[in-house]
Amino acid sequence: MFRSLLSVKKPVQQQSLLKTSVRMIRTFNQEEQPRIRINSLAPNFTADSTQGKLNLHEYLGNSWGVLFSHPADFTPVCTTELGAFAKLKPDFDKRNVKLIGLSAEEVDKHQTWIKDIEEISALDKFSFPIIGDSSREVAFLYDMVDEEGFKNLSNGIVATIRSVYVIDPSKKVRLIITYPASVGRNSSEVLRVIDALQKGDSKGVVTPINWQVGDDVIIPPTVSDAAAKEKFGDFNTVKPYLRYTKA
């Protein structure tokens, strides 16, 4: 980590120059990077966003969250993604999920980009925050880049700052997906996995391949037949370790 040169008060113009130089000399060391795994605590941070200063844990409160990131503003794939998530915001709201975007540029530029997103996706209003991460601090904190991108994290556009993190109300990371720069995300899949996670948490079940709301669920092998009968009622045994029941 570096020690900020801004700790000593300077004239505004000089502070601006120093801030630029600090960003240029910032070095990112893998030894200092948190290791984020499923069920690890989501690293907290405070950053500027298009809706003001945002502290991740405080913003989420008792809600679930989806933090999804982008390498730069005015990029074609990311523009379509943000528009798609914005259209689905009412569906995320129903599931008690807050959306948080991130792009590795300044908030002022995000505000201009939002106008394009609204126009292209025919939105009345873009209504969730996009974090400004021009310093790449959050990208580093959440390990959002590929191997080559990490080497260039301090300078220039970095590909593959395109990750999705689903965070539950206890602030644990429950899902991580990182996409290459050339592949657009599937917003419906993010909704699907949130449904599956919430179903599993509330009912003590797991979900099979391609599960959708209304489909049968699987009773975990750790639950005995007697306990399964008491808890779920009827169930269908395909194999001793594969038992289906109604959700």
Automatic annotation (TrEMBL):
Q: Residues in domain Thioredoxin?
A: 36-199
Query: Which sites are catalytic?
Result: 78
- What span is annotated as the signal peptide, if there is one? none
* UniProt name for this protein: LADA_0H08834g1_1
Keywords of this entry: Antioxidant, Oxidoreductase, Peroxidase, Redox-active center
Describe the task this protein carries out.
Answer: Thiol-specific peroxidase that catalyzes the reduction of hydrogen peroxide and organic hydroperoxides to water and alcohols, respectively.
Its GO CC terms are:
cytosol; mitochondrion
Q: InterPro entries annotated for this entry?
A: AhpC/TSA, Peroxiredoxin, Peroxiredoxin_AhpC-typ, Peroxiredoxin_C, PRX_1cys, Thioredoxin-like_sf, Thioredoxin_domain
Q: Record's PROSITE patterns?
A: THIOREDOXIN_2 (PS51352)
Keyword Oxidoreductase listed: yes
What is an example of a GO molecular function annotated in this UniProt entry? thioredoxin peroxidase activity
Instruction: Fetch the SUPFAM superfamilies from UniProt.
Output: Thioredoxin-like
